[in-house]
Amino acid sequence: QKEVEQNSGPLSVPEGAIASLNCTYSDRGSQSFFWYRQYSGKSPELIMFIYSNGDKEDGRFTAQLNKASQYVSLLIRDSQPSDSATYLCAVKGLEYGNKLVFGAGTILRVKS
Amino acid sequence: EAQVTQNPRYLITVTGKKLTVTCSQNMNHEYMSWYRQDPGLGLRQIYYSMNVEVTDKGDVPEGYKVSRKEKRNFPLILESPSPNQTSLYFCASSPRTEDYGYTFGSGTRLTVV
């Protein structure tokens, strides 16, 4: 059964704090992992992808992948009100027919 | 500007009246997909296309058709819409496979009454 799970939230953090968004997946053989950001009423946009265990940093964003524990996280440092959005995790794996499966998303609210 | 263009943005129709949602990309991408987004369910793939004349079913293909006669265009056809197809639809494209990440269109909100 396809399963990519995210806490729906909302996750509320104060401005300037670190926001930590988590995603777990069921397919142990998954190879590709993506984070998309979706503002209210808008389309998803790709912000990070990661293929290897460990951390990948891009500006204020860090993706963390732990294949043994089957989770991928997104950290947002120095959170800004403009980061308030829904964050979608997407995973591609053989168990999913080698197709991308999206989680339902986590709502992030950054309060000023 | 590199983009995926969907039309219309909003559509209200009646049960059984055939409709087409157009999708066009100007990035010469090979891979295109249609998704529907429903509250609590996330994005679910309807159909995808790996190149011209190559299409395949996604997770929720029932009630939909697609075609890929040209690389840039990937229309979604609802032959006989029903209320359970009321949803937010996104077209997306990627250079070769999903591993390159998608560029999404701005979405079509469809209501079937």
Describe this structure in words.
The complex is a heterodimer of chains A (112) and B (113). Chain A contains no helices and eleven strands. The termini of chain A are far apart. Chain A has 112 residues and is mainly beta. By secondary structure, chain B is an all-beta fold. Chain B is built from no helices and eleven strands. In chain B, the strands form two sheets. In chain B, strands 2, 4, 5, 6, 9, 10 and 11 form a seven-stranded mixed β-sheet that branches. A four-stranded antiparallel β-sheet of chain B has the order 1-3-8-7, with no helix packed on it. Chain B starts with a strand and ends with a strand. The model of chain B has no long low-confidence stretch (mean pLDDT 96). At the A-B interface, strand 4, strand 5, strand 9 and strand 10 of A face strand 5 and strand 10 of B.
Q: How much helix is in the residues of chain B?
A: under 10%
Order of helices and strands of chain A: EEEEEEEEEEE
Strand content of chain B: over 45%
Radius of gyration of chain A: 13 Å
Our measurement of the CA-to-CA distance between the termini of chain A, rounded to an integer number of angstroms, reads 40 Å
In short:
The complex is a heterodimer of chains A (112) and B (113). Chain A has no helices and 11 strands.
Secondary structure blueprint with pairings:
The complex is a heterodimer of chains A (112) and B (113).
Chain A lengths: L3 E3 L4 E4 L4 E7 L6 E7 L6 E6 L3 E5 L2 E6 L4 E6 L8 E9 L5 E4 L3 E6 L1
Parallel strand pairs in A: 2-11
Antiparallel strand pairs in A: 1-3, 3-8, 4-5, 4-9, 6-7, 7-8, 9-10, 9-11
Chain B lengths: L3 E4 L2 E4 L5 E7 L5 E8 L3 E10 L2 E4 L7 E2 L9 E3 L8 E8 L8 E2 L3 E5 L1
Parallel strand pairs in B: 2-11
Antiparallel strand pairs in B: 1-3, 3-8, 4-5, 4-9, 5-6, 7-8, 9-10, 9-11
